[in-house]
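User: Here's a chain of 200 residues. Predict its fold as tokens.
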Amino acid sequence: MSHTQTFPFLLVGQLEGYTLGKSGKIRRLLIKTNQGEYSIKLSHASRIELLRSILNNLLGQGSWVEVTGVQKIRPNGVVKSLKAERVESALPKTALVLPVALPLDIAPRAQDATTKILVCQKSDCCKRGSAKLQRAIETAICDRSLSNQVCVKAVGCLKHCSKGPNIVIGKKAYRDVAVGDVEHLLDQHFAPSRESIPAA
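Assistant: Prediction complete.
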């Protein structure tokens, strides 16, 4: 029996509109990116957040938005669904720095992987940017063609909450990891090391 896996996602694009449910409530966001249009289900909290932004004229059609949430991935790597947890206004300059849409189909297949990278997604680490960190790791692994050798997995608390974001690569734990550390960490584990980052 096949099971879907859940991973965080980050999507930056322009608000195209939204769809309403039978009760008249906003149910889904339509986000346009250079890779196409995405329909994203809203959680209760993100729906309230979105309505406040619309009422305060912070968001409207064509506005740049940053959406974070969870995606369900089928065993074959195809995205089954996206659910927003936060919807925030994104400045155009931010959208230019970040890829307009980060790939949604790069979650490595666990059955093919030999090395696991665990990324804490509990509240303290999330507040310190662990969702963006995990996406940066997944993107770097895809760029290096390591998807069949490495499995990136969102996990619960890895301890040392005050020093997050925390990750584990193989058997080595790292604390206070920034997106800028990703390339160096992967070099240490999957290529000749250019710079040493102390392990926890």
